[in-house]
Specification:
Helix content: 10-25%
Structural class: mainly beta
Strand order of the largest sheet: 2-6-3-5-4-7-1-8
Number of helices: 2
Largest sheet: 8 strands, mixed
Shape: globular
Strand content: over 45%
Distance between the termini: 38 Å
Amino acid sequence: MLLHIHKSKIHRATITEANLNYVGSITIDEDLMEAANLMEGEKVQIVNNNNGERIETYVIKGERGSGVVCLNGAAARRAEVGDIVIIISYALMTPEEAKNFRPIAVFPDENNQLV
């Protein structure tokens, strides 16, 4: 049996852009991606603290150091610039793997920079 386990999260990132006219996904500053152990193309859940929306999409690498957190495509309708979100990734693990696994949590500042 495999379990979906919380792998990592970027906690309380600020939406910097919402681009409706894009194919889809979330663009995340490469520094934040690395700190949270996220890979380009990885599936993530986005929880919007401002309106309660929860969506799933995939990650696109954003410019390193830019602080970009941009919802693209249809997801752009689920948040506004300035909204606070939690970006969560999960991994499939056996119960044995999950017992010893510790998720990564990244807490960026108000400009989506690592502190």
